[in-house]
Write a structure and sequence with these properties.
The protein has 70 residues and is mainly β. The protein contains no helices and five strands.
Length: 70
């Protein structure tokens, strides 16, 4: 049997009240069977489903506050 290259595990970081950070590149398979790919060094995956660019996080999970009139 030929020697297989040793693969390092991907690092996944769970953040409190934020996205899941995954060391890239990554391929994400969606629930409809389609897939999306990112070759970025670190990818932020949305876990709250509020992102307009789902499955990528666009920070829509952050609390919005009204600006006070001055």
């Amino acid at each position: 049997m030929p020697d297989r290259p040793v693969r390092q595990p991907r690092r996944v970081t769970l953040t409190k009240d934020g996205p899941m950070l995954v060391e890239g590149p990554v391929e994400v398979v969606l629930d409809d069977g389609s897939s999306v790919v990112s070759d970025r060094f670190t990818v932020a995956l949305c876990v709250c489903h509020r992102s307009r660019s789902f499955p990528w996080c666009d920070t829509s999970h952050r609390g919005r506050t009204k600006r006070r009139s001055v």
